[in-house]
Amino acid sequence: MSALIENFDAIIAGFWSTIRLAAMSAVLSLLLGTLLVALRVSPVPVLRGMGTLYVTILRNTPLTLVLLFCALGISNTLQLNFDVEDPAFNGYWLAVLGLTAYTSTFVCETLRAGVNTVPMGQAEASRAIGLTFAQSMRMVILPQAFRAVIAPLGSVLIALIKNTTVVIVAGYAEAAFVMKDMLYESAGTVVMVFLGFAAGYMILTLPVGYLTGWLARRLAVRR
Amino acid sequence: MSTGVLFDAPGPRARLRHNVLTLVGLLAALLAAWFVWARFSAAGQWDAELWKPFLDPEVWTGLILPGLWGTLSAAAVSAVLALLFGVVFGLGRLSDHWWLRLPSGGIVEFFRSVPVLIMIFFAQAGAFAIFGYVMPAFWAVVIGLTLYNGSVLAEVFRSGVHSVARGQSEAAYALGLRKGGVMRLILLPQAVTAMLPAIVSQMIVLLKDTALGYIIAYEDLLNAGFRVVPANYGNIIPAAIVVAAVYIALNLVLGWFATWLEGRGRRSRRSAATPMKADPVVGVPPLGA
Fold it and tell me: Of A113, A206, B13, B224, most Cβ neighbours within 10 A?
């Protein structure tokens, strides 16, 4: 227990970095994921192909490789950086880039599954009463689709929070980085350290699960 | 609902719009491709020297294939152990006895909400600190993956058993079977058919997560292809492309297998359970969803 108390400030700083990474990546993944799903359900074959190609590549590559590529490939080899002068800032945005590129594919697939939960009759009926494509999407399909994906999007967000630990390979210090230091340096307290950090992650992930589960139940479309 | 139903057959104006969008899309793709190509050649990553190692059979037999074996063996051992873990705790959670149900539920929820990486760290550091045992990276990876994927599979098993129509167990009880018999003879055989696609999807997650072994220097495909090869030939970008291609190929094969199983399960009339579509991220949708 003492190890946790002594390093309390470092631990809080680590989890604060985790939260900042997760929050920024969540917002950007939602935006990129929405754009990707628009490509993937569009009537234009070229756009569909581009969306599918991106999703297939990023979804089947391990996140470790994606983040390593951001750090070693994009930053070190290709010399594309956000700000070379400020390593912490640069590391943060490279990590966000990797997490967003990876997570947005899962957001895209979740949203697409949501559109698929809306029964075919809904789209046919809205066309039959003369709604245009945009109108039927806006007023009939998407409102039902969004309500169906609240809980799955919650799981994506939980996975994202847990995935921030992998950022360790990109050299940005978040909670797992702090934990690794504490584990391998001070023996004897490993169990407390592990339980402490596990509790930290549970405090971040469990409320997300309960909140989205509750919202999904409240807003579920009765069929 | 297939996406084709979302829009009508295009009229003249829509066709024009589609053509414009096609053009814009192609231009954007070309621009992106040109940008990548230009940056790569500015960094000299198209040099034949950097790609040559991947044409050398010895690089494959000496580094990449042993790495692939490391990835596949860790994935296979974790998969078997995770299935066992899932069966034990999934059935434990379905038990009528609170002293079995509550601890199983607690364990499953705990390992599902803790990141795999910190379990891997703890397995390695804990084994040394508590037992003085230097744990090989292989077992640390296997333990981390087993605990996490096992908990997810426990939930898959539980929802699989729940997905069998209730009339099945009622009929079985009416015939005079006891609890164990109902589970073993009636529920599980039908649930397995429904669960298979979700289990295979979870195997994809597991296979991808073996790459976490890189962080504790486990000699897997990522380590061999993305640390050792570039360290010798200085070809970080070609190495990333080749390693990613191998992972993508492996996962696509598993993914097709899952889709095929799902289609087969949907056509089959031998099970009263509806096939479960796996959540691509966590295996099963959260409860109440």
Answer: B224
- Domain span at residue A97? 2-219
pLDDT 10s digits, B227-274: 888 888 888 888 999 999 999 999 999 889 888 888 887 777 666 676
| DSSP-derived 3-state class of residue B2 | coil
Q: Looking at chain A, which residue has its C-alpha nearest residue B240? A: A69
3-class SS letters over A38-78 = HHHCCCCHHHHHHHHHHHHHHHCCCHHHHHHHHHHHHHHHC
Chain A's closest residue to B204, CA to CA, is A60
Q: How far apart are CA B82 and CA B204, in angstroms?
A: 13
DSSP state of B55: G
pLDDT of res. B279: 53
Q: How confident is the model at residue B215 (pLDDT cuts 50, 70, 90)?
A: very high
The backbone region for B288, taken as left when phi is positive above 0, alpha when psi lies in -120 to 50, beta otherwise, is: left
- Residue B9 one-letter amino acid: A
CB contacts under 8 A, A 78-117 vs B, are 78-80, 106, 109-110, 113, 115-117
Residues of B in Cβ contact (< 8 Å) with A197: 118
pLDDT tens-digit series, residues B64-97: 899 999 999 999 999 999 999 999 999 999 998 9
ipTM above 0.90, yes or no: no
Two structure tokens written together for A6: 């002594």
Instruction: Identify from A69, A144, A160, A218 which residue to disrupt to test chain B contact, counting B C-beta atoms within 10 A and taking the largest count.
Output: A69
pLDDT value at position B23? Answer: 95
Q: What does each C-alpha distance from A80 to A75, A171, B180, B232 come to in angstroms?
A: 5, 16, 61, 24
Interface with B, mutate which of A18, A59, A63, A64 (most B CBs under 10 A) = A64
